[in-house]
User: What shape does this take?
Amino acid sequence: GFFSKLTLFGEAGLSDKARNRYLCHENIGKFEYITKLSEKYECSVAAIVCGSLSSINKPNVFPIIGGRTVEQIEDSMCGADLSLEVSELRELFRYNID
Assistant: This one.
């Protein structure tokens, strides 16, 4: 939800709690990269986040999604159909995901 809210409302639209917990240099960098990926794959930021976790080739890594509306859940689930490239996953997570 953090990256989706940042997309829709910018930093000013984040709650104090979200700003204090998640707004940092590292996450801003991830947000910029996720935004580029969402443009490349023509999908939402939420779908990229879900897709990135679904693309990791390890059995103990999987996304847990939630939303307040059916539309939010459906949007996130679109990411399960994405196959991000290994180089994109490495850039996003900043460590070896193999």
